[in-house]
Write a structure and sequence with these properties.
This protein is α/β, with parallel strands linked by helices. 39% of the residues lie in helices and 19% in strands. Helix 3 links the parallel strand 1 and strand 2. Helix 3 packs across helix 9 and helix 4 runs parallel beside helix 5.
Length: 303
């Protein structure tokens, strides 16, 4: 994997940073919602320095309020790279199959490349499973989130036969909080009774698992996991891809793929922030990994 990418990079060394700059005048990295904008920017600040040095052009970060802001930026050509969730990638692909190229996927500590949608509630609520959520307030994150909406909207009705995600059906009220961090904070504060977020499902619950939104919340001091309880867990979901805008010059795509792919080896502390916790970094991925998610999104949401 590393050797292949390294050879590809060597093949482009005749193209200097100055030559690259003639084709692109800046490089723009989009960051999905899910936590407050400043924390997102801080976690990706290293990418600004590394990218500017590598490409020889100014690098900018964009942290829109919701997932759709990144999706539309990629479709409109105002964002060049982003780490998408699988459903956000599916949304981009369904609107324009040629807009972006999936290049890398996050690798868990055990070598797997999947994660879970995790349902959770406060321990003192007395809720221990979805069976206890009838008539209560349930929170999703963002309509374009895989673990924060798409997968639970498919699998929860399978768990509770005939249930829909409509307010007043099984759940007393269904709310979109705006993102993973917002869902975690709302449940922790008692503003909603339960919700879903994402985690690798590996490691210890009290740490927020090894990686994911719960781990970020623990690191930020937003929650004590001993106050929360897991009430549901989805089947394995493929980690979302790092994507690059297809129209970028090929040498730029090769260089940026290599940069992210080798980030864990070269700067593990910064890789922790970018990858939302402890991981083994990234490895190559293709569209094939997401065909089932594209089909699921098309059937549930449309595009």
């Amino acid at each position: 994997m590393k050797k292949t990418l390294a050879l590809a990079l060597v093949a482009t060394t005749a193209l200097t940073a100055a030559a690259t700059a003639q084709e692109i005048t800046e490089f723009r990295i989009g960051i999905l919602g899910g936590e407050n904008a400043q924390d997102r920017m801080n976690n990706y600040e290293c990418m600004v320095n590394y990218t500017t040095e590598l490409l020889g052009v100014e690098t900018k970060l964009f942290a829109p309020a919701d997932y759709n802001g990144v999706i539309q930026g990629l479709l409109g050509g105002t964002i060049d790279m982003a780490w998408l969730g699988a459903s956000s990638y599916a949304a981009t692909y369904l609107q324009d199959p040629d807009a972006v190229e999936p290049v890398l996927i996050k690798v868990n500590l055990d070598g797997s490349v999947g994660y879970h949608s995790i349902g959770f509630a406060r321990v003192d609520s007395g809720i221990t499973s979805l069976d206890d959520m009838e008539g209560k307030v349930f929170g999703f994150g963002d309509p374009n989130s895989t673990s924060g909406y798409l997968i639970p909207s498919i699998e929860i009705p399978q768990y509770k036969d005939g249930v829909t995600m409509e307010s007043g059906d099984y759940f007393g009220d269904v709310k979109f909080t705006g993102g993973h961090e917002q869902t975690i904070v709302a449940v922790n504060a008692g503003d909603i009774d339960g919700g879903v977020t994402w985690a690798d499902g590996q490691g210890n619950w009290e740490d927020g698992y090894n990686s994911g939104a719960l781990r970020r919340a623990v690191d930020a001091g937003l929650v004590d996991m001993n106050d929360l309880v897991q009430i549901w867990k989805s089947n394995v979901i493929p980690e979302g891809p790092v994507v690059l805008r297809s129209a970028l010059p090929e040498e730029v795509k090769v260089k940026m793929t290599t940069l992210v792919d080798e980030l864990y080896e070269n700067d593990p502390d910064r890789a922790y922030g970018v990858a939302a916790g402890d991981t083994l970094g990234f490895q190559p991925v293709s569209h094939k990994m997401y065909e089932s998610i594209v089909a699921a999104r098309e059937s549930v949401i449309g595009n």
